[in-house]
Structure formats: C-alpha cells, structure tokens
Amino acid sequence: MALVRALRLRTAPSALLYGSTSGVYGDLAGKFAYETSATNARTPRAMRRVSAESTVRFLGRSHLGSDATRTSILRIPGIYAPDREGGTPKARLLKGTPVLQKQDDVYTNHIHADDLARACLAALWRGKPQRIYNVSDNSGMKMGDYFDFAADLYGLPRPPRIPRSTAQDQLPLMLLSFMSESRQIDTTRMKKELRLKLRYPTVKTGLLASVQSSMF
User: Fold this and answer.
1) Can you give the pTM of this predicted structure?
2) Beta bridge partners of residue 19, listed in sequence order
3) How far apart are CA 81 and CA 200, in angstroms?
4) Closest by alpha carbon to 80, among 99, 108, 105, 54?
C-alpha cells in the first residue's frame, strides 16, 4: 500500500484504521464468520483486501515502544444510507433485477453508514493493537427476503425469483459474485471491545427510518 510506504518515511501515527471487507471470508455456506476464521477470498477485490490487511498489521508490528502504531482493521459488509449513491435497494427494485429462489438464496449482511462511522471512531479510541473487528448489524437476512422487505416498504413490486442455474444468464457478473457467497457475521468483538451499540441494529430499522425521515 502506498499509504503505508509513505508513513514509514515519517513519524508513524499513534493509531491507524483500515476499512476492509467481509468478503475476505469467502463462501461459508451460511455459517458464521469470526475474526479468527481463516480468510478464503475468491474475488480479486477481496484478495486485494487480504493483502492490504497484512500490510497494515505489519506496520503495527514493526514499530515498538513509543513509536508503536496501534492498527485496527474493520471487516465491513454492504454499506447503506439514503444519502449515499446506490445506498438503498430502491434503484435495483425499479429495474426489476431478479433474486435467487429461496432454496438457492444466500445470507446478506449490512451496516448503516452512520453506525459504520461510529464504529470507526470507537476503534480509534478503544481498538486493541493489531486487532480485527467485524462490523455489521444483526439482521441475519437472506438476500431475497431483504429485497422483498424493501419492495413492500417502498410500495414496489417484489423482485422475481430465479433458480441459480439460470442466474448467470440474467444477472451481471458483479451481482453474481455476491450471490455466490453466503455467510453470517459474528460481531461479539465489536460489541464487547468497542462497546458499540448500533443506532440501526437491523437493516429493517435502518430502511424504515430513512423512509420515515423523508416524509418530513
């Protein structure tokens, strides 16, 4: 990472936060991902994040004593917010993009942008040295159920359900990559060590709040 190379040429910061992705865990077939779980990145984007994580942690370990840099790595799922471009599922619903049928569906994970910002501040203040933290809400939803809820909330048609066998003919590659991995995210460390209480503990509460705020 160019940033780390630059930091080595000057006085190291006392703390450094790196925002990674929960995609580093790869496909867990719906099981929980813990910070101690092995990484199994499958996409080029996630592979780059694994490499960047190693570089950041090495920076923290390479400085000792008063020059030590306390590094924190946040593994982040899908970020949503009404004022973020593409920050809600509404645009995708308007396009009528299909989702997987229930027997093929995958778990999806989310964090509201406001809660992510608060997690970053908490990690800078309370994060343990060279520590990884999963940052996610408590939704535990399948992707299709997420879009069904959003459609009902916005008063739009629910997306069509298709089998995985035909998905590659109807969906873009980026979306297919998300639909090829299923995992839930354990956030015990975030809650206990960072002492973070989410403002939007589920994606349902976050989307509902955004709709209610737009009415005023």
Assistant:
1) 0.92
2) 74
3) 11
4) 108
* Among 7, 133, 119, residue whose Cα is nearest residue 68: 7
Tens-digit pLDDT profile for residues 76-116: 999 999 888 888 999 999 999 999 999 999 999 999 999 99
Q: pLDDT higher for 170 or 31?
A: 31
Alpha carbon distance 200, 202 (integer Å)? 6
Q: What is the dihedral of CA 22, 24, 25, 27, to 10 degrees?
A: 100
Q: State both tokens at 206.
A: 């976050």
For residues 122 and 198, give the distance between their C-alpha atoms in angstroms, rounded to a whole number.
12
Torsion of CA 139, 179, 45, 126, to 10 degrees: 10
- Would strands 131-134 and 70-76 be described as parallel, antiparallel, or unpaired? parallel
Question: Is the pLDDT assigned to residue 5 strictly greater than 80?
Answer: no
Cα dihedral: 133, 136, 138, 142 (round 10): -130
Rg (CA), the chain: 19
Please state, as a whole number, how many other Cβ atoms lie within 10 Å of the Cβ of residue 176. 13
d(CA 109, CA 96): 21
Model confidence pLDDT, tens digit, residues 29-50: 999 999 999 999 999 999 999 9
